[in-house]
Amino acid sequence: MNVIFVGSALFVRTFLVFISFGEALSPNRGEQIKNCLNENFDFKRTNWNDTIERDAPSNLKVETTWSSSHVSRYDLTIVTQLSFDRMPALYNQCSTYPGPMAAAVYLPLLQLDDQLHILNGESGDLNPENKERVRKEVERVGRIFQEIDNRNDMCQLDLMFLWEAFDSKQASLLYPVNSLRNYARMQVRTNLLSAIDVDMMISSSVGRAFEHPATLKELTSAVEDRQAVVLPAFEPQRQGPYGRMVADESCKASKENLAIKFKQKSVLQFKLKVFPRGHTPTNYTKWFQCTHPYKVRYQRMYEPWYIGNVKTAPFHDVKFRGYGLNKIAHVASLNYFNFTFLVHPDFWIIHRPHEDTAVRKVVAREASDVNKFGVKLPKNALYYKVTQLFGDAKRGMIRGNFNITLDTSMVRCYNTLTWLPPIPSSQGFPVDPLIFI
Ligand SMILES: *[C@@H]1O[C@H](CO)[C@@H](O)[C@H](O)[C@H]1NC(C)=O
Ligand SMILES: *[C@@H]1O[C@H](CO)[C@@H](O)[C@H](O)[C@H]1NC(C)=O
Ligand SMILES: *[C@@H]1O[C@H](CO)[C@@H](O)[C@H](O)[C@H]1NC(C)=O
Ligand SMILES: *[C@@H]1O[C@H](CO)[C@@H](O)[C@H](O)[C@H]1NC(C)=O
């Protein structure tokens, strides 16, 4: 007994030495990503009209990265993005998945042009108050990162902190959702990934399944075949603290137990009341009956969350900022790139209710003005912009020349950091226009 114990302890020691040796040889990946993305950074405040009317690129600066001190437990990384005030949501999401997570946290900074030091052109810098703001937030986020990293029962988190300066309060609504998704993905060290919004809790069945090597094998071969493995999404019927309690319970529940909650309508198909098209193609009736994966057809406005492969999953188009249609356009691109949709029989995610973001309220109001009252929006309205972007994307998909716009700095980093997996170069195929009607 003793001998075996000593033997295995020695083995573990050797193993650990080997790992730390390996890490010492390759400099910290987070640091390399940060330095690369910042290489051509030039301080510039983001402006509403330039962004909306001229697709001016975002001006993101990577301030810090933190890398998990743990080895990735599973070969699936959850990729997410959030604004600085949503760190509690990241903590909660991370507590529902004991595998690797890659996140980008974002701080928008308002810097009006009455500040002396930027009067001569735009070659300025953050003002002292904003510098202090960054310093404080980095410290705060770093503490939360450390708390997560100290634990063995939570996710293995790689985290990137970015900020962007704006010249108006309105412009600061332009949350760069897709740039952040793409940047967060750069940190992924596994073969499988799933970009999931930070307010979705992950069913404990996901982590449990990865304890079985067969699951990994199955999933890996599914996504190798350009299949998007769909995670059905739910939400509690009620908002507020009660809804959050239901979400926390549901992600730990068995599928049978979830079925009871679903029957009782305490959990619903995600956004069933306001946007049934988003998830109806998943077929929740069928899902509760199934024990095996099943295929579903793409339909317009479908926007499931899914597991993909780093080698083939498309990136997100960075022209989408703020709120609206970004995930719908992304899922439409999967269809264009000839992915099929395969619903996983045991995995799901559930929304943890929270306050609406300011930008969602703006876009929702504009959308209802247009769709209910026939209001003609000004060209620089955000809802006008995102519908136009989605229209361009659809026309490109129908003609067969659809492209995804990426940040030039990110593309440069993919070319210089050779350990990053290459950006997927997928062949798309013209889609039937009827699919969008
Ligand atoms: C932004 O664009 C709108 C509509 O094109 C225009 O009316 C407005 O004056 C512009 N604002 C600025 C600050 O240039
Ligand atoms: C959903 O699945 C059920 C059960 O398999 C099936 O009867 C039904 O036709 C499906 N619904 C749609 C819209 O495909
Ligand atoms: C698209 O994928 C299907 C299988 O999922 C395959 O049969 C078909 O040949 C593919 N189409 C093209 C144009 O590659
Ligand atoms: C995609 O890029 C090609 C070549 O750069 C261009 O001809 C085409 O118009 C682009 N498609 C769209 C939808 O922007």
From TrEMBL:
Keywords associated with the record: Glycoprotein, Membrane, Signal, Signal-anchor, Transmembrane, Transmembrane helix
Signal sequence segment: 1-24
Any one GO biological process: protein O-linked glycosylation via mannose
One function term, GO molecular function aspect: xylosyltransferase activity
Domain of life: Eukaryota
Topology of the protein relative to the lipid bilayer: Single-pass type II membrane protein
Protein localization: Membrane
Main subcellular localisation: membrane
A GO CC term attached to the entry: membrane
PANTHER family to which the protein is assigned, alphabetical: GLYCOSYLTRANSFERASE-LIKE PROTEIN GNT13-RELATED, GLYCOSYLTRANSFERASE-RELATED
Protein name per UniProt: Glycosyltransferase family 92 protein
Species name: Chlamydomonas eustigma
